[in-house]
Amino acid sequence: MGILFEDGNFALFRDGFLQTVELSAISALLALLIGTLLAAFRVSPVPALRAFGTVWVNVFRNTPLTVLFFAVVFGLPRLDVHFDNFTFAVIALSAYTGSFVCEVLRSGINTVPMGQAEAARSLGMTFGQTLRLIILPQAARTVLSPMSSIFIALPRNSAIAGAFSVSDLYFTQMTLTDRGYAIFAIFFWVALAYLAVSATVALLFRYLETRLEVAR
Amino acid sequence: MSSDSSVLTALLSGNEPGRTPRVSKSSSVLYDTPGPRARARYRAFGVLSVLGIAGLLWYAYDSLASAGQFSAAMWEPFQYTAVQQRIVDGLLDTLTAFGVAALLSLVLGALLAAGRLSDHKPLRAVATAVVQFFRAMPLLIMIFALYHSLFGTSPFWALVTGLTLYNGSVQAEIIRSGVNAVPRGQSEAAYAIGLRKTQVMLTILVPQAVRSMLPAIIGQLVVTLKDTSLGFVITYTELLYAGKLIASNTSTADGYPYIPVVIVIGTIYIGMCLLLTALAKWIEARGRRGANRRTPAAA
Amino acid sequence: MRTRRTIAAALSVLALTAVAACGKDGSPNAAAGDNAPKLPTYQVKTDVKLDGSKTWAAAKSRGKLIIGAKADQPYLGFEDLSTNTRNGFDIEIAKMIAADLGFSYPSQVEFKTVVSANRENAISQGQIDYYVGTYTINPKRKESVSFAGPYFVAGQDLLVRKDNTDITGPDSLKGKNVCSVTGSTSVKQIQPYVGADKKVTQYDTYAQCVDKLLTNEIDAVTTDDAILMGYGAKNAGKTKVVGKPFSKEPYGVGLNKDDQVLRNAISDALKAHEDNGDWKKAYDATLGLSGATAPAIPALERY
């Protein structure tokens, strides 16, 4: 178990951990943005946007993230989009996670009582105002629990970036394995790191839940 | 042409029924039935977004085409029987891993759910710890560790074990919440007529829970299916592995056919997942209809 | 397998609608002209008896020799997916050894793809009888497997775009984007040249690196020159090998650590085929196609 404190392994491990956290955090924010936008598209009065949202969600939800990484890392350069592998990973992760966020939000929107939207409309609010001021805040409350599963899954999924030249925790695990350390000793520390990340996300959502419950 | 529901919406929003355009039921609540000006605006929006999306698609197509991604050489490998056979073999390996992992994860999920619902505190604690641990662990990390420790000779079992541990833990949570969602009166009534806990579970709660759980369970099976693609990191010869080999062993004037491979392999995955999702939807619809028919007063 | 064929048909329709002719045979990597060097054929020995070699005895009773190889290295260990055949210099070395061990190709020889990270495992657990695939002999590996050879000496080199002039060797790599395969020794050896503030890009196949080289995201791909030559030849006109190897990588045939008898037999086989000209012929018909002339045959190390 002491491998962490030998031969400069700690620096490698720390860098991997920070990279995983950074990748997850940025992707989470972007996924939230993409998901909200897609959800708005999917309930909007413009058929073309609805169709776009539906196609996006069906494609990205049903493609394995690994395949998506291949598409992004080797596809985007052909579209003259050149980034480093970290940015590519953020794009793949948030496009993928965004489609799940969209579906959860949409089901949340459906749980908001019709009367709310009708009341908003009778006050003369537009679609955008209704969604932004009335529906989404209420929907957010009901979707907190499924949303927390999505954002606990995100750091888990981010490990795939390690296979595409991002120096995250998976990369750390590969490197240490290659250096010949006992696999269980490596797994112990890497597992601990992921548990810490997912516990933090879970706590964050629990805090949000209590906060929003008071507001109700 | 207006359906019942849109008439209703139109009435509720105080508009003339005859003018109701065809909009989907779930979305129509959010905005008024558009008047002439709004309709013009939506149309403008529609045209703009169609143009925008078409522009993006055209840009993507054009760039890929000019990068030679649609050249004959890029797609040539797929013409060969041996290559097609390799894709089919990869697909079969994917489905085998999926089938075994799906079955085992459901069994593990049921066991863990039983543990989490148990009256014995230690058992509950163990089951909870197992579920929380494996739910937080990246599958890739698990598969890699399993392959380099216990299953060095068999990437198949490393993959299946990893898939089972993770998906089993998630299935356990789905089953547990399904059982918990059955109205309390059901179990109270069952206990009142003298059934033991196991009997209450097996004869009263689980059968009712299954109906509400099935879509979620199948949804998780879709995840299981997608995650089999991680097998490529430990050289399990599944679909993505086959695709990668095809890409890396075909060099053309414009590089390696990663895009054609992603298109072909991605289409197959999407097709399979959509089939499973459709199954989930069908079961859900069937369950709802059944629920309405059999227990009209339950709501 | 009726279902298999049905799925194959369905798949062809699904994915290959754009392609008029489904199910071609043969290879797109069509052979060069008539005067291209031809592969040698190897006389299979008939009265082989290796007393004391467990590996050989097991292979004999199974009726088949299982050889580990690489699948994605052009002209070295390459699997032609359209014909389901393997070719390359390593494959030829494997075949000449097989012939001397009394196994005829292809009926009694089976190749199995084993990736770098898994070689020691596959050998020590007996999944393969021996391994031929750019396997550098080094002391660390000798702790878990045994080597016959070396049969070829490669050296780490760089593959760059054809029009690149500023990369002339490892010393000109400071701050450049360099790519190699995840966890390989090439990465460790090149990182100091690139500098601490620039990470070497790592994918799990060289083809991914070369593809990135072609889309200008990578400035150089680094690994053994023998491997790079193959990629260079496959992408001729777009890439070139710098040609100044800066390490020595003696390739050996990997086999079970305890099988001294088999190791001697493989060494004898290598010696015999090096002396009778097969080695040179095999080189010319494989790696030689990339334009490089055959290097000197290294002396065998028997231990």
TrEMBL record, chain A:
It is a multi-pass membrane protein. The keyword Nucleus does not apply. The chain crosses the membrane at residues 23-43, 55-74, 86-105, 181-208. Keywords: Amino-acid transport, Cell membrane, Membrane, Transmembrane, Transmembrane helix, Transport. This is Amino acid ABC transporter membrane protein 1 (PAAT family). Belongs to the binding-protein-dependent transport system permease family. HisMQ subfamily. It comes from Kitasatospora atroaurantiaca. Residues 17-205 form the ABC transmembrane type-1 domain.
Automatic annotation (TrEMBL), chain B:
Pfam families: BPD_transp_1. The keyword Transmembrane applies. CDD domains: TM_PBP2 (cd06261). Keywords: Cell membrane, Membrane, Transmembrane, Transmembrane helix, Transport. GO terms for molecular function: transmembrane transporter activity. Residues 91-280 form the ABC transmembrane type-1 domain. The chain crosses the membrane at residues 42-61, 95-114, 258-279. Belongs to the binding-protein-dependent transport system permease family. NCBIfam families: HEQRo_perm_3TM (TIGR01726). It comes from Kitasatospora atroaurantiaca. The keyword Transmembrane helix applies. GO terms for biological process: amino acid transport. It is found in: Cell membrane. GO terms for cellular component: ATP-binding cassette (ABC) transporter complex. It is a multi-pass membrane protein. This is Amino acid ABC transporter membrane protein 2 (PAAT family).
UniProtKB/TrEMBL annotation, chain C:
Residues 1-20 form the signal peptide. GO terms for cellular component: extracellular region; outer membrane-bounded periplasmic space. Keywords: Signal, Transport. SUPFAM superfamilies: Periplasmic binding protein-like II. The keyword tRNA processing does not apply. GO terms for biological process: amino acid transport. Pfam families: SBP_bac_3. Residues 64-290 form the Solute-binding protein family 3/N-terminal domain. The keyword Transit peptide does not apply. PANTHER family: ABC TRANSPORTER GLUTAMINE-BINDING PROTEIN GLNH, AMINO ACID ABC TRANSPORTER PERMEASE. Belongs to the bacterial solute-binding protein 3 family. This is Amino acid ABC transporter substrate-binding protein (PAAT family).
